[in-house]
Amino acid sequence: MQYRKDIDGLRAVAVLPVVAFHAGFNQLPGGFVGVDVFFVISGYLITGNIFAELSRGDFSLLRFYERRVRRIAPALLAVLVAATALAYFTLLPGEMLEYARSLIAAVFSASNVFFWTQAGYFDSDSSTKLLLHTWSLSVEEQFYIVFPLLLSFLLRVFPTRLKPIIWGLMAASFASAVASVALAPSAAFYLPHNRAWELMIGSVLALGMVPKIRGAWLREAAALSGLAMIGAAVLFYREQMPFPGAAALLPCLGAALVIAAGETGPTLMGRLLSWRPVVFIGLISYSLYLWHWPVMVGAQMNSFLFGGAPAMAIKIGTVLVSLVLATISWWLIERPFRVGPLKLPRKALFQAAGAAAAVLVAVGVAGQVDHGLSFRYSPRVQQIADLLTDKSHRQMREGTCFLPSGSTVDDFDMACVRQDPRRRDYLLIGDSHAAHLWYGLAKAMPGVNVMQATASGCKPTLTHPGSAEERCVALMDRMFDTYLPAHKVDTVVLAARWKREDLPRLEATLTRLRGQGLDVIVFGPIIEYRSPLPRLLAVSDRLHDPDFVDEQRIDVSGVDREIGKLARKKGARYVSLASAMCPAGHCLEIDPKGYPVQFDYGHLTGSGSEILARRVIARDPTLSQGPIAAAPVTASAKGA
Question: Which residue windows are transmembrane per the record (predicted)?
Fold first, then answer.
């Protein structure tokens, strides 16, 4: 297949939004779609080369895999070595254990399957997953393993049925992806059969299965439309939206249009993409993708090293460091192993790659045998750090009374809102920041039946932003529009990870609830940290710096005051969790057994929830008693 500069330029269009998105530039909220553009490009180029060789009758599977190893292995192995060194010096034992497993998965091109098995709302923080980005490389490698064999078989056995079979397989993959987005979002994102259709869009172009774009004006329109489609996805897509599924069509078809437009002649967009600086970014795009994520994760894990540096400076710095490393990697690793002095004969290449892979696997095995190379830390640090991966400390009733991402409202167990005629009934509604309060409130208020209706990322309001998931809207509608009008509840408790933008929706919700005569308690935002509290405490202990944790605390006082002012204005009772956690400026961090009271950036452990709830009730005993006088309740008689 003839080299096209504009395709390297398209690679730049794909990689730069991904890097910007991961760096935290909110101006490109849909930058993650660059990976999907990469899939289309890869499918086009790989299929084109395979088909050309098959047509000439000189296709060699061994030679194909040799090219893939030359292209992929050197830079990947270098990044794995660097990431492993970074992990050794920065990751805590539990994190290192997970890293060791992910390292083995990356070596065997199974990262996507590994991270799929790890996916979950309270999965370990992605800010410590140094190899998370290798999932997309694994998807491509799995495609490379299967598709050449499939194409060779079809051309030999069913040459006249090639097109309908390829179209059928692509349609089946797309249908699976659309269904999985609704039923199993993690599977839709990570698994190859749900991503294959994106690579196959490039394949059908390379196989000539779509009409060529003839005519200069049509080519110009197609190229411009394609870039506009990619740009629209980058600018307007949101991380919270259901993806990939049908939503991935926009950037994938956009990439296909740009590629197709350049097949039959030059275009203005093609010339722009062929501009030398853009092409250069495309040439280093593989190395840039490989290096940028470990750089950004490393910067986030070690943010304390930057002191009071502005967040924007850190973002720009990580991007620049990534570009420098990518350029060095391309010049000194990628090119020499492909076309330069380090280009090894096939046998030596496979032996060298195999030996390097074996060493990395051995490191991964050692990391598991020694429980994350725990000898690096004191027993005290190990105890603190264990909370990062020990889920027994979490008391939220996940999967029944708390719906995580990927669930539906049908998964909600109505027993979670069953009333008790012998006790007062409080209905706790909200997101995970409401769910983590349930355990403590139930312990601290034995005379109260604390019912729970919570879902991840779901604010307890009547209306929701456009990015809200269907299960969130459905659960809140069920509680506010169906359950509360039909049941006499003594008190409604609203809690969430409140932000300023929630104020108008919360005000409308309080107006309605108080107008219905309902007693309402609003819990304010909880203390949060820039990194998981167990990690911060462990680092503090390791650095012998008692002020370190305080320096990493996020100020929520402004939102706390605004939410409190609104709640009191609407006649609701307000609980400042921030004040309860940090009386007189001394914040609750450790429980009596020496464990952190929060297992990540802000979610409470069971112990932390109970301690905080008892503090809250001790400060205001009326919270577990009668409601504020209000208008007559219009709901029906109390019942189950």
Answer: 7-25, 31-52, 72-91, 143-159, 165-191, 217-237, 243-261, 273-292, 312-333, 348-369
Short-list 326, 173, 165, CA closest to 252: 173
Angle between helices 196-206 and 162-183 (to 10 degrees): 160
- Helix, strand, coil distribution of the chain in percent, nearest 5: 65, 5, 30
Distance CA 472, CA 434 (A): 14
- Going from the C-alpha of 179 to that of each of 175, 185, 187, 188, the distances in angstroms are 6, 9, 10, 8
The predicted model gives 587-608 an average pLDDT of 91
Angle, helices 134-157/93-107, rounded to nearest 10 degrees? 20
List pLDDT tens digits, range 257-296.
999 999 999 999 999 999 999 999 999 999 999 999 999 9
Give the DSSP H or E segment for 183.
Answer: helix 162-183
Mean pLDDT in the chain?
91
Q: Quick one: average pLDDT of 487-506? A: 95
Q: Please compute Rg for the chain using Cα positions.
A: 28
What is the Cα–Cα distance from 257 to 526, expressed in whole angstroms?
Answer: 48
User: What does the block give as tokens for 155?
Assistant: 């051309």
Neighbours of 62 (CB within 10 A): 9
The span from the CA of 79 to the CA of 85, in Å, is 10
Q: Is 537 exposed, middle or buried (0-12, 13-18, 19+ CB in 10 A)?
A: buried
**Is the predicted pLDDT of residue 337 greater than 50, yes or no?**
yes
Burial class (CB in 10 A: 0-12, 13-18, 19+), 547: exposed
Residue 435 CA to residue 465 CA, distance in Å, equals 21
**CA-CA distance, 385 to 402, in Å (whole number)?**
25
Strands (E), 356-495: 402-403, 424-430, 448-455, 491-495
Q: What is the C-alpha to C-alpha distance for residues 575 and 557, in angstroms, rounded to an integer? A: 13
| 5 contacts 262 by C-beta, under 8 angstroms | no
Is the confidence at residue 149, as pLDDT, over 50? yes
Residue in the block written with tokens 């060298």:
352
Tokens of 98: 């997970």
Degrees (nearest 5) of the Cα angle 403, 404, 405? 125
Cβ atoms 460, 434 nearer than 8 A: yes
Q: Domains of the chain by range and CATH?
A: 5-355 (no CATH), 392-526+554-624 (3.40.50.1110)
Return contacts of 368-372, CB within 8 angstroms, 24+ apart. 368/97, 368/100, 368/101, 371/93, 371/97, 372/91, 372/92, 372/93, 372/94, 372/95, 372/96, 372/97, 372/98, 372/99, 372/100
**What is the b/e burial string over 465-479, where b = at least 16 CB atoms within 10 angstroms of the residue's CB?**
eeebbebbebbbebb
What count of other Cβ atoms lies within 10 Å of the Cβ of residue 206?
21
Residue pair 66/349 in contact (Cβ under 8 Å)? The answer is yes
Asked if 291 contacts 299 with a C-beta cutoff of 8 angstroms, the reply is no
Residue 632's pLDDT band, with cuts at 50, 70 and 90, is very low
